[in-house]
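// run 5 | inverse folding | seed 20
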């Protein structure tokens, strides 16, 4: 009568999504406790999957009477007080044969400030994350690049149960709907000297944000503006002129950065060899040639960008690392800059200041666009499908045109070969005061710059409609550009 009886679910979970209000992690207060909230961020870490007790039965060690069942709550463990058969106060032990594990429990970390989010799975709570737009406050980092200047990112822990377990991994940009809940933690009270509650988010629904979701969030005004721009015959020149309009010259570099933001289409001919579609760019030139300004401008307009420096980044900080979870004491995987920039842009300034050992760690991420981890019993591979834009200074601080590019930079051939566009700045900045003037001399020859409100949304155009942008340009997307 029921041919698929084994597929009948024993428990049905109601999921709620698309709440009208989105809360930031740093804005969560007492009024949000025990309330259903919606936030977004980037998963920074995940713990292992652990079983959670649902219905428990106990055996009395004196009379062997079976007590229960006791249904465990989310906040505390329920134990019998006395045996109804022999009236003793115990001891009691769990009846493993009749005890049922109700759900699998996973804890994740999310962060707010639109920079990155982190999820972790653990028995009590998830790794820290800062929900909503970007970085971490509790233990869930938010989306990359959305933290206000001068403010630290926030993160918040989130707990995933039942079918939500393993629904996301480090580096995923997600929207989270759940109940903001507080748990009593005695260790926090001893450390702070006064009663403190640890807050977590009990996840109810998770949506992974991809290109389709980003396009769906465009307003009608954005769509009309993009369609109108696509009909402009000089749209390619206008986009190139919009890349750092306050920076004089460097037209080829602006062209390369614009093409890297749009990227290409990944190819997998015959399913045998995968060719990435992201364009990696290396800027090399004398000090004062606006290399860092280009990186900062890309960070400002890119929909998802992570900025770091060579001296402040290490191999594990760029890829991924493992650390012990503060509650479960098990090893958890933490995502680095390249993983958090998945399907976005990773900007590395002072690339030549990095150690050779640290630079070799990103070889796999730049070509295969994945990061393999085999540490502390964790063997996995994380996605790092991002564009890498790096800035480097030549050897001695000055670029020698009589030497080759490899002889001017302190970089090995394997790392240089992974960059598709090499931009060399031979012209020092000679235009400082004019950068504050609205009309540059070169703007009369090229198209008018686009507004910064429209430009960030333009690269989110679906791949099928990307042909409307820069279609008039005959410059190849991959190659070596020399000024």
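// decoded
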């Amino acid at each position: 009568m029921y041919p698929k009886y084994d597929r009948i679910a024993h428990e049905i979970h109601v999921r709620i999504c698309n709440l009208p209000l989105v809360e930031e992690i740093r804005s969560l207060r007492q009024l949000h406790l025990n309330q259903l909230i919606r936030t977004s961020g980037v998963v920074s870490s995940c713990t292992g999957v652990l079983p959670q007790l649902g219905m428990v039965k106990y055996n009395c060690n004196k009379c062997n009477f079976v007590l229960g069942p006791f249904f465990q709550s989310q906040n505390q463990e329920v134990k019998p007080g006395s045996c109804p058969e022999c009236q003793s106060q115990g001891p009691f032990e769990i009846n493993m044969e009749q005890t049922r594990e109700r759900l699998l429990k996973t804890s994740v970390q999310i962060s707010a400030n639109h920079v990155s989010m982190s999820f972790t799975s653990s028995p009590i709570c998830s790794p820290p994350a800062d929900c909503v737009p970007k970085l971490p406050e509790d233990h869930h980092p938010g989306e990359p690049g959305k933290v206000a200047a001068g403010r630290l990112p926030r993160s918040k822990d989130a707990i995933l149960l039942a079918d939500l377990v393993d629904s996301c991994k480090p580096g995923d940009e997600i929207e989270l709907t759940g109940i903001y809940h507080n748990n009593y933690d005695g260790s926090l009270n001893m450390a702070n000297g006064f009663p403190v509650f640890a807050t977590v988010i009990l996840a109810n629904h998770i949506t992974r944000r991809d290109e389709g979701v980003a396009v769906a969030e465009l307003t009608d005004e954005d769509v009309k503006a993009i369609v109108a721009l696509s009909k402009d015959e000089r749209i390619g020149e206008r986009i190139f002129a919009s890349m750092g309009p306050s920076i004089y010259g460097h037209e080829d570099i602006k062209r390369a950065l614009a093409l890297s933001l749009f990227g290409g289409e990944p190819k997998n001919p015959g399913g045998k060899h995968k060719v990435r579609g992201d364009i990696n760019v290396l800027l090399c030139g004398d000090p004062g040639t606006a290399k860092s300004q280009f990186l900062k401008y890309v960070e400002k307009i890119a929909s998802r960008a992570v900025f770091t420096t060579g001296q402040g980044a290490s191999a594990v900080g760029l890829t991924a690392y493992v650390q012990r979870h503060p509650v479960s004491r098990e090893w958890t995987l933490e995502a680095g800059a390249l993983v958090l920039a998945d399907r976005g842009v990773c900007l590395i300034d002072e690339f030549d200041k990095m150690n050779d050992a640290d630079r070799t760690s990103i070889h796999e991420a730049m070509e295969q666009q994945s990061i393999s981890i085999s540490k502390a019993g964790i063997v996995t591979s994380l996605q790092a499908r991002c564009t890498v834009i790096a800035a480097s200074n030549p050897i001695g601080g000055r670029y020698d045109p009589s030497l080759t590019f490899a002889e001017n930079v302190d970089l090995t051939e394997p790392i240089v070969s992974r960059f598709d566009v090499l931009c060399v700045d031979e012209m020092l900045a000679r235009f400082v005061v004019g950068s504050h003037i609205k009309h540059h001399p070169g703007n009369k020859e090229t198209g008018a710059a686009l507004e910064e409100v429209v430009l960030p949304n333009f690269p989110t155009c679906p791949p099928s409609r990307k042909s409307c942008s820069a279609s008039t340009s005959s410059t190849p997307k991959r190659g070596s550009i020399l000024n």
